[in-house]
Here is the input.
Amino acid sequence: MPKQSFSHITTWVFDLDNTLYPPQARLFDQIEVRMTNYVMTALGVDRPQADHLRQDYWARYGTTLTGLMREHDLDPAPYLKDVHDISLDHLEADGLLASHIKSLPGRRIVYTNGTAPYAERVLAARGLEGAFDAIYGVEHANFLPKPERAAFETIFAQDGVNTETAAMFEDDPRNLHAPHEMGMRTVHVAPDPHDADHIHFHTDDLPTFLSKLRD
Here is the structure.
């Protein structure tokens, strides 16, 4: 049962996008459009080439930004500010999710490949402000992205996370490899399960899953 498997957990780490809000919100549709436009302008390429680079860098490096930095020496700060300047008007507050997260024993943090200011906006729109003890973005990992283990190590060192007593909630299966290797309990949050040894649990309903961990 999930409750027994999480009885030792003292730190709860949550991804942001498509984890703390449902993928049906399709925020990344907006972000991807802005990414493509930024790549077109920054590199002077047409839209099909920009779309190709965006997807290729995400697949090879974990994020489009990492590919742009490593292959084109792109300044990350203006890029991150631009691509996360999206509308959150259709996000809805989720009081049930907020209640279940706040009831988790121990420390609760958000760790995203986006930026902390963007995460703060999303959490506010979801009614999750005050539910977390800390918020970490890619900027706090020196712009190293998940799934790179060094990125996790950088964030967890800053926060003082003991990975042997921590759990990671994440929608991208790739981003659960390193947490699993580090001794964390891993939960894949997505509509469809992904069968892999590095994933302990899957859920398509985060509030219900968290409710099963309560006394």
About this structure: The radius of gyration is 17 Å. The mean pLDDT is 96.
